[in-house]
Amino acid sequence: MAKIWTPKLYLRLAALSGFVSVAVGAFAAHGLHEARPAELLKTGALYEMTHALAVFAAFAVARATGRSAGLAAGLFLLGTLVFSGTLYAMAFGGPRILGAITPIGGVTFLAGWLALAWSAGKVADQA
């Protein structure tokens, strides 16, 4: 059975996430005239870009430590889906109740950063 969640897939998803964050940010800045949806999109895009880059950082740490980056990368991608995804949905008229789910994405981001910190603990100190 082929392994589905490979480093290549994580990195491709991170690159796609970076692309989406730029597109959404540009739309928020130039395509919307209402403040509330634009702010939701800008916040979602900022966190999406930050965590797309964090996935790449997770794999850099994995390369330096020999540890798996899958947990941190997966948490960053899941956090993006939940946090940014709910903000995007609300900006486009989705139910406001989605705002109750948004913090779950934030907690998932925090867990990803802790997983990355744990992985980074094996980086050898260079003199």
From TrEMBL:
The keyword Lipoprotein does not apply. It is found in: Membrane. One of its GO terms (cellular component) is plasma membrane. The chain crosses the membrane at residues 44-62, 69-91, 97-118. Its main location: membrane. InterPro entries: DUF423 (IPR006696). It is a multi-pass membrane protein. Residues 1-28 form the signal peptide. Keywords: Membrane, Signal, Transmembrane, Transmembrane helix. Pfam families: DUF423 (PF04241). Belongs to the UPF0382 family. This is DUF423 domain-containing protein.
